[in-house]
From TrEMBL:
Listed InterPro entries: SLC13A/DASS
Lineage: Bacteria, Pseudomonadati, Bacteroidota, Bacteroidia, Bacteroidales
Subcellular location(s) of the protein: Membrane
Membrane topology of the entry: Multi-pass membrane protein
GO molecular function: phosphate transmembrane transporter activity
Keyword check for Membrane: yes
Keywords in alphabetical order: Membrane, Transmembrane, Transmembrane helix
The protein's name in its UniProt record: Dihydroorotate dehydrogenase
Superkingdom per UniProt: Bacteria
Chief localization: membrane
Length: 504
């Protein structure tokens, strides 16, 4: 979905670099080894005697699901193939091996009791059209329309103007504006766009000054942190929200506006802390900076439709509990309006990030399989979650998530951890209540994912900013570690206080 966005050349260069690394001769052997390890370990789990697992009542279907889950984990960790490719493969494996439409030779001659409960194939396929997927599609459509109409340039210029020309306030402006965009646009597209606006500024700053490092670092930090403010800001948010609101699970009915009511203030506080940290680590030598953002907003009738629809959609999202219109339903309004009016064309639909949607859907499919096969129930019975200290459960899960997300896709991390933590949290709701409940557990994973930005490979915005040549890896690591520690402490403190007082 990045071709029409400002700074697409940055995204294209980043993708070309990733592809070149995968295809490099010295990487081919490594990829083959990783694939071999993932497949071998999964097959071992597939064919092990069922008693080996030590889970009473474990069925063949559940054993297959354990094998597939481990395969997904290893493939996402190793990244031998793109993460979204693994996600699609997982869905196909689930359909062919554990669904009620499995391959015939995997079910023939096995008693129903021994085989276990299969997953409805429709349930797995429905994951591609889950309401959360529709929410993301609405967000992508809004982003594309905003770029076509020039609304993004207009907003960037208007929003940056109040910060004047003093260097430290310009830095704050880029942090807050980038964060605001990343709440509704892809953080990759946001980072590419804002880095494009920033390029002439970086060239004008003294070559020996540290200020340009701070400005370049501000973009990925703000893009990663800003996404926490809304459910569509980043996929881990949406994954956590799905399990929190699942009618057959936790059923907490947290709305779009409700999410923003507690996550937006937290996000703003973290952004101001980031501003302070960047100023201290990378002080400016030049006291004033002149900004020149090129491009104009269009004024034809279709652009007016975009402006009005954008505003109405955001307002309806923020007040979904007041209007009674679910945020997933609201997301379809811009889709309908823009398609009918010709703002969005068939070509534009091809620009949607389908790889992101398939990635999320694959995680949902794993969660559905865990529930419908009964493996989730058996895990709760086999693992004494209730005896675990609540602090260990909550803080430990956050740290594990943060560590994983620095090295693999944030979405993959959430897709692996959230379904398991939702199961664990359901079994120990009373124990967790003093620390904010299951909400703290699952939202903590979303926060941990977004704060993982130590390395250039941690997130696409990090990679794009690192590619400018202004940032050394040691600088990124220093900022990433500080932001991770502060962000996690503040995040869990907020969630525990709000949750224990029934304010979530």
């Amino acid at each position: 979905m990045y071709k029409i966005f400002h700074g697409f050349h940055l995204v294209e260069a980043y993708q070309d670099l990733k592809k070149a690394k995968r295809l490099a001769k010295n990487q081919t052997v490594a990829r083959c080894i990783k694939l071999t390890v993932a497949i071998t370990l999964s097959l071992i789990l597939w064919f092990l005697p069922i008693d080996t697992f030590g889970i009473e009542g474990l069925t063949i279907i559940e054993q297959r699901l354990i094998s597939i889950f481990i395969f997904a984990t290893l493939m996402w960790v190793f990244e031998a193939v793109p993460a979204w490719t693994t996600s699609v493969l997982i869905v196909v494996l689930l359909l062919l091996t554990v669904s009620d439409s499995s391959l015939w030779f995997l079910t023939q001659g096995i008693s129903t009791e021994e085989l276990g409960q299969t997953v409805k194939y429709k349930s797995i396929m429905h994951c591609f059209a889950d309401p959360i997927i529709m929410l993301f599609i609405g967000g992508f459509i809004l982003a594309i329309a905003a770029t076509k109409s020039g609304l993004d340039v207009l907003l960037a210029r208007v929003m940056l103007r109040p910060f004047g020309t003093q260097s430290h306030y310009v830095l704050l402006g880029f942090i807050l504006v980038t964060a605001a965009f990343s709440m509704f646009l892809s953080n990759t597209a946001t980072a590419a766009m804002m880095l494009t606006f920033l390029t002439p500024v970086l060239k004008a700053l003294p070559a020996d000054g540290k200020g340009k490092i701070g400005l370049a670092m501000a973009i990925p930090v703000a893009a990663n942190v800003g996404g926490m403010g809304t459910p569509i800001g980043t996929p881990p948010n949406a994954i956590a929200l799905k399990y929190l609101n699942d009618p057959e699970g936790l059923n907490l009915n947290i709305g779009f506006g409700e999410w923003m009511s507690f996550m937006l203030p937290y996000t703003i506080v973290v952004l101001f802390i980031a501003w302070f940290i960047l100023l201290r680590l990378f002080p400016f030598k030049q006291k004033n900076i002149e900004l020149q953002i090129e491009g104009e907003a269009k004024k034809d009738w279709r652009s007016i439709v975009v402006y009005i629809t954008f505003a109405i959609t955001v307002i309806l999202w923020m007040f979904d509990k007041v209007t009674g219109v679910n945020s997933n339903v609201v997301a379809m309004i811009p889709v309908a309006v823009f398609c009918i009016t010709g703002v969005i064309t068939k070509r534009d639909l091809e620009e949607i990030s389908w790889s992101v949607l398939w990635m999320v859907a694959g995680g949902f499919a794993l969660g559905v399989a865990l529930q419908e096969t009964g493996l989730a129930k058996h895990m709760i019975e086999a693992i004494p979650f209730n005896t675990w200290p609540p602090v260990l459960m909550i803080v430990g899960s956050g740290l594990i998530c943060y560590a994983m997300a620095n090295f693999i896709s944030h979405t993959a991390t959430a897709a692996l951890l959230v379904p398991i933590l939702a199961i664990a949290g359901s079994s120990m709701r009373e124990n967790l209540s003093s620390l904010g409940g299951v909400e703290t557990l699952l939202i903590g994973v979303a926060i941990g994912s977004s704060l993982a930005m130590i390395l250039p490979i941690s997130t696409p915005p990090n990679a794009l900013a690192h590619a400018t040549g202004m940032i050394q890896q040691k600088d990124m690591e220093k900022v990433g570690i500080i932001m991770g520690i502060i962000g996690l402490i503040l995040g869990y403190t907020m969630l525990i206080i709000l949750g224990s007082n029934n304010l979530l």
